[in-house]
User: Fold this.
Amino acid sequence: MSRLCSSRECWLFPRGAVANYVNAFAVQSLAYTATFDTLGAAARIQVPTLIVHSEHALSPALARRFFSRLAGPREEVWLSSPGQIDFYDRRPLIDAAADAIVDFFGRASATAGLYVTQLVYPRQRIEQSTLDRTDRFLASPDLPPALARQILEARDGVARALRAQACDVAAGQSGGPAG
Assistant:
């Protein structure tokens, strides 16, 4: 029997790869997820929706069924990835997903952008490159003001976190989650 890794081993060092991971539904989570009807909710979503997924990410078949039941305008982008966690820490996947989002919301309504900005802005990427990429997006002259405001607010959170990390480093602390 293989030893399960601690959350620190699995998620922080060096990344979330787990040798015995199987891309399947964890039956133990049924009690927490059974009460939410994801597919039924899809039929009530009428705002423009973009799904970014991978064949090796969590439950691609469910993602396809969810996509097919969306009531509003929809698009999907399927990227190649080794697994689910790669969307969190692999720069090429993050960049490809971000580019797809920028393209989609360049064509979709500002209202949809407001909803999704809350969900997909890469707040966990506390890096100057996140700010740089955001600044390039915000430079668009056609960006609806309400969407620009939402993105600016998310950008400010990353900028504050970067400043806090710099203060931690100056004080002799690590400034990261393992601190």
